[in-house]
Amino acid sequence: MKFSIITACLNSEDTIEDTIRCVLAQTHKDIEHIIVDGKSSDGTLEVVRKYANRISKFVSEPDKGIYDAMNKGIQLASGQIIGFLNADDVYAHDSVLAEVATAFNTDHLDAVYGDIVCTRHKDISKVVRYWQTGEYKPRAFFQGWVPPHPTFFCRKCLFQKYGAFNPKYRIAGDFELMLRFIEKHGISVAYIPDTLVRMRMAGKANTIRGVIKGNAEIIDAFKVNGFRPPLDFFWRKPLLKVSQLVKRPANQETSNLYG
Predict the structure, then answer these.
(1) Which residues contact 6 (CB under 8 A, 6 or more apart)?
(2) Is 193 exposed, middle or buried (0-12, 13-18, 19+ CB in 10 A)?
(3) If residue 170 lies in a helix (H) or strand (E), which one and from where to where?
């Protein structure tokens, strides 16, 4: 089973080496790592070039945002399974992709997902928030549930059948795509009860302005997929986050391979 891991980046010189190294460290070796850069102006390109002979495909050109960059990666992908790992995220351990491959091989699934921990930006060993996803139930999206996108792996054929990311979104494009795949089209999904990714806390979605814009995009995502946004969605979602702030994963060890 071949994986295409897509990393979209822009001015990520401080973190992208950790991301590259965690992909290279995976015990499952049938992987192509595709990096799509939005024409970085810092030292990102120099870092990527250090690993040029171990990165499958690399593009550096202006884009229309992160989801446009991810769509470019999908077009370049040749693996049966596609995953997205942002330039400031790392896999939680070196057998993540082996675990994901086992899940796909156990049953004919369309997609799998797992848990994620959010960490301090400068110290990925310090957990700020533990996002324990749990099993999907029909209409779970309407209750504020959504799988963390960096842990979401799906078959490439789904993008060909149901479409890729809508680049008009700046923050909630991943929410819209997973809502479309899982709730609208009813793809088969399975939960892996393990922490798959460590995600640094940063980005537009974590600012007040970002929260407001993200919520507006979520409302639109429901509407464009033929759903009515639930009235209680925007208080259920914060309540889920509060519980994530006090939970901790059973194993918080981080491999020193990642920086």
Answers:
(1) 34, 36, 70, 73, 74, 77, 82, 83, 84, 85
(2) exposed
(3) none
Amino acid, single-letter form, for residue 118:
C
Q: How far apart are CA 204 and CA 182, in angstroms?
A: 25
Find where tokens 């369309």 sit: 110
> Residue 229 is encoded by which pair of tokens?
């946004």
Question: Are 112 and 104 contacting, i.e. CB atoms less than 8 angstroms apart?
Answer: yes
CATH fold for the domain made of 3-258? Spore Coat Polysaccharide Biosynthesis Protein SpsA; Chain A (3.90.550)
**HSE of 36, CA atoms in CB hemisphere, 13 A:** 24
What phi and psi values does residue 10 have, to the nearest 5 degrees?
Answer: -160, 115
For residue 2, give the DSSP letter: -
Sequential pLDDT tens for the chain (259 residues): 999 999 999 999 999 999 999 999 999 999 999 999 999 999 999 999 999 999 999 999 999 999 999 999 999 999 999 999 999 999 999 999 999 999 999 878 999 999 999 999 889 989 988 999 999 999 999 988 999 999 999 999 999 999 999 999 999 999 999 999 999 999 999 999 999 999 998 655 556 777 889 889 999 999 999 999 877 776 666 556 655 555 666 655 544 445 4
Question: Residues of 26-53 as b/e, b for ≥16 C-beta within 10 angstroms?
Answer: bebeebbbbbbbbebeeebbebbeebee
Closest to 221 measured CA to CA, from 114, 151, 141 = 141
Enumerate the domain spans of the chain: 3-258
- Residue 42 tokens read as 């810092």
Q: Residue 195: which residues within 8 A CB-CB, separation 6 or more?
A: 92, 114, 115, 116, 117, 130, 249, 251
